[in-house]
C-alpha cells in the first residue's frame, strides 16, 4: 500500500518533491501505523515530562519550570521536515521537537531542571540555563567545529522574548551564502546551501520589534526560513487582542504575503494545533517553499493550549474563565490526536484496517509515564550522587576539626539537620570551618584546605568557564606580526590603509563577508570599502536596510555556521540598538553552552570625537559591562584597526572593533604587509616614555592626550603615554603597573562619562595589577561631562576633555605636591 494513497484519502496536500520531506514512496500500512503511534508515544512522553516537571518544582526539587505541553503535535510535524544540517533558533517551549530530533531525552530534560553541571548528562548547557533551553553541540572538546551537516542543529536558546529572531535571520542567510561561497572545510557547514533555519516564537512575542525587523529583513533577502508561531491566545495573562493591532497575526501579516512573480515577501500558512493531518500538510508545504524556492514562511499555529498554564510561577486559572478552560481541555492536541487515531479506519484489499484501539493507546500512555519517570529518577540519582561525592570528600575532614572548635561543631550539627543538601551547603560548611579555625596550623586543617581548593577549581570550571575561548584559536594566542615598512611605503589617508587591508582580507578568506548600512555600493560612508563590492560581489560586500538589531543577528547566525562575518554598525552610537543581542546572545553563547557553540563575529563600527548628541557618544562603559564575553578593541588609528581585523579573523571569539571616526582623512604610512600584520589583543603600547606621570587612554582621545603630554613637557612634567588598545582583554602583562611603579602617578583619560570606562580601567590597574602600592598622589580620571556632547567644534570642546583640560588637571597634581615648583594656574 502506498502512503501517498493513504494520506490522499485523508485529503492531505501532497508534494512529490525529492528535496522535501513528504515524498511519494512505497510504505506499508503497518509502517504508516507505526509512524503514527510513534508520534503519539513521543507526544505522550513529552506531556508526562511536563506534568512530572511541574511536580518536581512544586515539591522543591527543582527551582523553576516552564514546559511545552499543548504544543506537542505541531512540534512533531515540524520535526518531520527538519533535516541534518538544518538549524533551529527558538525559545523555551520546544521540548517535543527536541525529543523528536534526538537532541533531548527524558533524563537530560530533568538533568537540566536540577541544574546538573555534567556536560554528558545535560549537554545543552551543563546546568547553566533554566529548563526548556535547548542546544546541540557544534564543537568538539578542543573547540574545533563538528560536521554540522551530519547532525540536526539547535542554536542555544535564550529567554528574552523575540531575542532569538535576529540570529535566525543569519542562520537562514548562511544557506544563501553557501550556494555561492566555497572554502576549505565548507562542506562541514553546508551542502550546497540546502539547509533551512527554523524559528519558533510565542504569539505574544510577535509584538516585539525584533520579530518584525527579522521578518521584514527575511522577506527582503529571500532566505530559507520557517517561523512557527505558537498561538495560545495569551502572553502570560494578557490576551492576544491587547498584544497587537489585530488579534489574528496572520491577518496582520497579510501584507507580507508574496505575490506571484515577485521576489519579495513570504508565504503564510495558518493551521490548528490539534489537527494532526493538517499539521503534516502545513509543514510539508512550508518545507517545499523554504528548501526549494528559498522563500521565508510563517506557520501560524492557532488553537494552541497550555494545560498547565504559563509556568510554575502561577496558575492560568487566575486569568482564564471556565469556558476557556473547558475549551482547552476539549481541544488539547493529544486528546484530539487520540480521537483521530481511534476513529481512523481504511479498507485495504477488502479488509478494514485501524491504527489502534483504546486499550492499545492506554498501554502507550502507561509506557510514556514509566519512561518519563525512569528518566526523572535517573537524572535525580545522578545529580544527588554528585553531591554525595562532594559531601563524602569534605565532611570527614570537617569532622576531624569539630573537637578543636565549638563553632565547627555547631556548623556541622546544622548541616546534618538539613533535609536536602546542595553544593552550596557543603561549601558554606567548609568555608565556615576554615574561618572558625583561622590561625590554626594543623595537619587536619591543611587537609581540609587542600581539598577545598581542589573542589573549588572543579566548581569554578562548572560554573564560570568558557566565557571566552579556551581553544588554540583564542585571540590571545594569535601571534603578533608587526607592520613592515620600506622606503617605498606611502603616506596615505587612514581610510586607504583600512580599504586596502580589507581587499587583502576578502582575497585571502573567501568565507569572510561584510554587510551594513551603506557598506556595499558606496563602499561605506567613509570609503573604507571603496570598490570592494565591485570586486567581490554584492553577496560578500552587502548593503542592508536600516535595522541594526538584525545586522547583528545576521552576523551571529552566519558565524554559528562557520562563516567569518563582519557586521558593520555605521556609528558607535547605533550600537545601542544591538546591545540586547550582544549582551543576551553573542556574549553568552560560548558560556551558556559550556563551550558547545561559538559565534566568532566581528562587529565593525566607528566613533568618538565627532559632533552632536546622536553621533559622538561614547557608550563604552555600557558595552564593557553588558557584553562581557565579547572582546572590546579600541585602536587609535586605522593601521591598528586593520591589524585587529587580521588578528580576529584567525581567532574564534567575537569582538567589537571601534575605528576612529576622525582618522579616515589623517595620513598614515601604509604597511607593505597588508592582510598579514596583526595587533595582539590584551597588549598595551607605550607611545611616549616619561618619568613623572602615567597617562592611560585609548582610541581617538590618544591624539589629544599626546598633545597634552607635549605641553606638559614644556611645564617641566615628563608624561608617559600609554595606549590601551584592547579594553577586553586588558593589559594581560600588567605593563601599566610597571609604568606607575616608575612614575608614581596615574591619570586615566577617555571621553566616556564620569565613572564609566575610566572606572573599569582604574579597577583593573589598582585592584588587579595592585598599582596602588606605587602611588604618591591620588589617581585621577579625566572624562567627558555626563551629558551627551553638544554640537559643533565648540560643543566638543566644552563637552569632552580638551588639551587644556588635561594640561590643567594634570598640572594641578604637581601643584598639590610642590606648589613652589608648580605654582597654581588659577
Overall 3D shape:
globular
Question: Would you tell me which CATH topology of the largest domain applies?
Answer: Rossmann fold
How many helix segments?
27
Number of strands: 24
- How many distinct domains? 4
Q: Quick one: CATH class of the largest domain?
A: Alpha Beta
Rg of Cα set: 31 Å
Query: Mind describing the biggest β-sheet?
Result: 7 strands, mixed
Question: What percent of the residues sit in helical stretches (DSSP H or I)?
Answer: 40-55%
How are the strands ordered across the major sheet?
Answer: 13-12-14-15-17-16-22
CATH homology superfamily name of the largest domain: Thiamin diphosphate (ThDP)-binding fold, Pyr/PP domains
**Helical/strand content category:** alpha/beta
Tell me what portion of residues adopts beta-strand conformation: 5-15%
Whole-number mean pLDDT: 94
Amino acid at each position: 500500500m502506498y502512503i501517498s494513497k493513504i494520506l490522499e484519502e485523508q485529503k492531505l496536500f501532497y508534494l512529490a518533491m525529492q528535496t522535501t520531506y513528504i515524498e511519494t514512496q512505497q510504505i506499508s500500512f503497518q509502517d504508516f501505523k507505526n509512524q503514527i503511534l510513534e508520534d503519539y508515544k513521543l507526544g505522550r512522553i513529552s506531556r508526562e515530562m511536563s506534568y512530572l516537571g511541574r511536580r518536581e518544582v512544586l515539591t522543591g526539587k527543582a527551582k523553576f519550570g516552564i514546559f511545552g505541553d499543548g504544543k506537542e503535535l505541531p512540534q512533531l510535524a515540524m520535526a518531520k521536515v527538519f533535516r541534518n544540517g538544518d538549524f533551529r533558533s527558538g525559545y523555551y517551549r520546544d521540548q517535543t521537537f527536541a525529543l523528536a530530533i534526538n537532541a533531548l531525552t527524558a533524563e537530560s530534560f530533568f538533568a537540566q531542571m536540577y541544574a546538573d553541571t555534567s556536560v554528558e548528562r545535560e549537554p545543552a548547557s551543563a546546568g547553566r540555563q533554566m529548563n526548556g533551553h535547548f542546544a546541540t553541540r557544534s564543537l568538539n572538546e578542543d573547540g574545533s567545529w563538528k560536521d554540522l551537516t551530519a547532525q540536526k542543529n539547535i542554536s542555544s536558546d535564550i529567554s528574552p522574548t523575540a531575542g532569538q529572531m535576529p540570529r535566525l535571520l543569519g542562520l537562514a542567510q548562511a544557506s544563501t551564502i553557501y550556494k555561492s561561497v566555497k572554502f576549505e572545510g565548507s562542506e562541514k557547514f553546508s551542502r550546497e546551501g540546502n539547509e533551512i533555519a527554523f524559528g519558533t516564537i510565542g504569539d505574544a512575542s510577535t509584538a516585539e520589534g525584533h520579530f518584525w525587523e527579522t521578518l521584514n529583513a527575511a522577506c527582503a533577502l529571500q532566505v530559507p526560513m520557517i517561523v512557527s508561531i505558537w498561538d495560545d491566545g495569551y502572553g502570560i495573562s494578557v490576551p492576544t487582542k491587547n498584544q497587537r493591532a489585530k488579534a489574528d497575526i496572520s491577518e496582520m501579516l497579510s501584507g507580507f504575503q508574496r505575490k506571484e512573480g515577485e521576489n519579495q515577501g513570504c508565504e503564510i500558512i495558518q493551521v490548528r494545533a490539534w489537527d494532526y493531518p493538517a499539521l503534516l500538510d502545513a509543514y510539508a508545504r512550508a518545507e517545499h517553499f523554504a528548501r526549494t524556492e528559498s522563500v521565508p514562511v510563517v506557520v501560524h499555529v492557532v488553537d494552541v493550549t497550555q494545560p498547565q498554564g504559563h509556568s510554575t510561577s502561577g496558575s492560568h486559572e487566575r486569568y482564564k474563565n471556565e469556558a476557556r478552560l473547558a475549551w482547552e481541555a476539549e481541544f488539547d492536541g493529544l486528546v484530539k490526536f487520540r480521537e483521530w487515531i481511534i476513529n481512523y479506519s481504511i479498507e485495504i484489499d477488502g479488509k478494514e484496517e485501524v491504527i489502534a484501539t483504546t486499550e492499545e493507546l492506554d498501554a502507550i500512555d502507561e509506557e510514556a509515564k514509566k519512561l518519563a519517570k525512569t528518566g526523572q529518577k535517573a537524572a535525580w540519582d545522578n545529580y544527588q550522587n554528585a553531591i554525595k561525592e562532594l559531601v563524602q570528600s569534605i565532611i570527614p575532614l570537617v569532622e576531624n576539626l569539630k573537637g578543636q572548635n565549638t563553632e565547627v561543631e555547631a556548623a556541622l550539627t546544622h548541616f546534618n539537620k538539613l533535609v536536602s543538601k546542595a553544593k552550596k551547603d557543603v561549601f558554606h560548611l567548609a568555608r565556615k570551618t576554615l574561618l572558625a579555625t583561622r590561625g590554626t596550623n594543623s595537619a587536619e586543617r591543611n587537609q581540609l584546605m587542600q581539598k577545598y581548593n581542589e573542589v573549588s577549581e572543579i566548581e569554578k570550571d562548572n560554573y564560570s568557564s568558557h566565557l571566552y575561548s579556551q581553544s588554540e584559536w583564542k585571540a590571545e594566542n594569535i601571534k603578533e606580526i608587526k607592520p613592515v615598512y620600506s622606503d617605498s611605503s606611502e603616506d596615505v589617508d587612514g581610510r586607504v590603509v583600512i580599504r586596502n587591508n580589507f581587499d587583502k582580507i576578502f582575497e585571502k578568506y573567501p568565507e569572510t563577508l561584510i554587510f551594513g548600512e551603506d557598506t556595499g555600493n558606496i563602499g561605506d560612508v567613509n570609503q573604507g570599502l571603496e570598490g570592494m563590492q565591485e570586486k567581490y560581489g554584492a553577496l560578500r560586500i552587502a548593503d542592508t536596510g536600516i535595522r541594526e538589531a538584525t545586522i547583528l543577528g545576521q552576523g551571529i547566525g552566519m558565524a554559528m555556521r562557520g562563516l567569518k562575518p563582519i557586521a558593520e554598525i555605521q556609528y558607535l552610537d547605533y550600537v545601542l540598538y544591538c546591545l540586547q543581542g550582544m549582551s543576551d546572545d553573542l556574549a553568552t553563547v560560548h558560556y551558556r553552552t559550556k563551550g558547545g557553540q561559538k559565534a566568532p563575529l566581528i562587529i565593525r563600527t566607528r566613533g568618538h570625537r565627532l559632533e552632536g548628541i546622536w553621533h559622538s557618544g561614547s557608550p563604552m562603559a555600557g558595552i564593557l559591562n553588558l557584553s562581557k564575553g565579547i572582546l572590546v578593541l579600541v585602536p587609535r588609528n586605522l593601521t591598528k584597526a586593520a591589524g585587529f581585523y587580521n588578528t580576529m579573523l584567525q581567532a574564534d571569539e567575537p569582538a567589537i572593533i571601534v575605528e576612529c571616526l576622525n582618522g579616515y582623512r589623517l595620513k598614515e604610512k601604509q604597511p607593505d604587509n597588508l592582510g598579514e600584520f596583526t595587533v595582539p589583543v590584551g597588549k598595551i603600547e607605550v607611545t611616549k616614555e616619561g618619568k613623572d606621570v602615567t597617562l592611560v587612554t585609548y582610541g581617538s582621545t590618544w591624539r589629544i592626550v599626546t598633545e597634552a603630554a607635549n605641553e606638559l613637557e614644556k611645564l617641566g612634567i615628563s608624561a608617559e603615554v600609554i595606549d590601551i588598545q584592547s579594553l577586553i582583554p586588558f593589559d594581560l602583562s600588567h605593563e601599566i603597573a610597571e609604568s606607575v611603579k616608575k612614575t608614581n602617578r596615574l591619570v586615566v583619560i577617555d571621553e566616556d562619562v564620569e565613572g564609566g570606562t575610566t572606572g573599569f580601567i582604574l579597577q583593573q590597574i589598582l585592584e588587579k595589577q595592585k598599582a596602588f602600592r606605587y602611588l604618591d598622589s591620588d589617581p585621577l580620571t579625566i572624562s567627558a561631562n555626563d551629558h551627551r556632547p553638544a554640537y559643533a567644534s565648540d560643543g566638543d570642546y566644552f563637552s569632552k576633555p580638551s588639551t587644556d583640560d588635561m594640561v590643567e588637571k594634570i598640572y594641578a597634581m604637581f601643584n598639590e605636591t610642590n606648589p613652589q615648583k608648580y605654582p597654581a594656574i588659577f
